[in-house]
């Protein structure tokens, strides 16, 4: 039996905000706390300190299993008093594959500092004041505003130093070396030409090895600064900054940001966003890839949502490392009184064509054969949920998984369609790893690995 989870949400007092270094209206300073959990975009979102409970699951039923455990602990929906993300709350990371032996987890912090973006909150546009939530599984503990503030200050005092740099820190091969991966992509392209499959997303990993311990807070802080418009996530060793919103559910209002189509900015230093737009729209391959990604999402959401709205014209999303062709999809669900939760919808739409391919089943079999690695949490849903079914799940891209104090796997993947050039895809995979490698203070090795 899961221990019952109780919570209290209170406004963050000015005094505590000052003690936590939160006077500039951004949650950024809290990422320096050792072990902090984070979901931040443009300085807003949620930071978790300490840990009250953890729910784990593996296998095909991992979404439903986690949801059942969280519901049992919170006594069902309805705990959030008015604001999405207040009340009972958990950070979430779910593996890409149902076959992965790696655990999918919901982590309930001891304290959550919440300051979501105004337009994501239930107040729809009104600005939200930051709050504190304290969470407990001890039935004898009395949750008071004073305790919430005292616990936040106590936990925030545990700071994590930055990593000491060493010339011996290195980027080393992962499951496949660069030549092996290029050969695997070439096999993927010929498979597309022979089989009933239009797109497969092929990923690769590299392993960062460091002399002194990796600092989670340093990675999170650097990503949140450099990739302000992305969702920076840090969930127990899964750290990155994703530009792609798998699914956001706030009060039955559902949104997703679909990406497909990538141009490496480093390869085109003089190009402007207008050049990128012209290049995307002039490329039948890019437009085709993008259309496949939207169609897949729309068809997965259809059973839940009769009215689906998506941008008729895709837009160009400009990031420091790449440009993407992007489309925002939004939809209202649950008018019949059976609103699906963020976990329900994440399960329904994952894995999208953006990270798997089309058709999904054939693509996933080919990927497993060619990539020769378990993706673990890479390309899986990462984000948060509350007890009322609200939540946000990004796709865990542009990220790293710390697998020891001094080593981390960094991932990057590319949509492969008929006519894809394996060497260009290799360059694109490095472009997608650049945010994390930069955050480590490392570069792509000068010789092939
Ligand atoms: C698979 C990744 O990115 C995905 C693939 C893209 C593409 O192939 O153009 C673009 C954005 C993402 O949907 C990754 O970053 O690892």
Task: Report on the architecture of this protein.
By secondary structure, this protein is α+β, with helices and mostly antiparallel strands. The chain has two domains: 151 residues, no CATH class; 271 residues, Anthranilate synthase, CATH 3.60.120. It is built from ten helices and 22 strands. The strands form two sheets. Strands 1, 2, 3, 7, 8, 9, 10, 11, 12, 18, 21 and 22 form a twelve-stranded antiparallel sheet that branches. Strands 4, 5, 6, 13, 14, 15, 16, 17, 19 and 20 form a ten-stranded antiparallel sheet that branches. The longest helix has 19 residues. The chain starts with 5 loop residues before the first strand and ends in a 9-residue tail after the last helix. The mean pLDDT is 92. Bound molecules: the ligand C=C(O[C@@H]1C=C(C(=O)O)C=C[C@H]1O)C(=O)O. The site of ligand ISJ has 18 residues, from β10, β14 and β22. Its EC number is 5.4.4.2.
What are the defining features of this structure?
449 residues, 12-stranded antiparallel sheet, 10-stranded antiparallel sheet, globular, isomerase, EC 5.4.4.2, Chorismate_C
**What fraction of residues sit in β-strands?**
25-35%
Give the CA-based shape.
globular
Distance between the termini: 49 Å
Largest sheet: 12 strands, antiparallel
The number of E-state strands comes to: 22
Please, what is the average pLDDT? 92
- The H-level CATH homologous superfamily of the largest domain, spelled out, is Anthranilate synthase
Structural class by secondary-structure content? alpha+beta
Distinct ligands? the ligand C=C(O[C@@H]1C=C(C(=O)O)C=C[C@H]1O)C(=O)O
CATH fold description of the largest domain: Anthranilate synthase
Report the CATH architecture of the largest domain: 4-Layer Sandwich
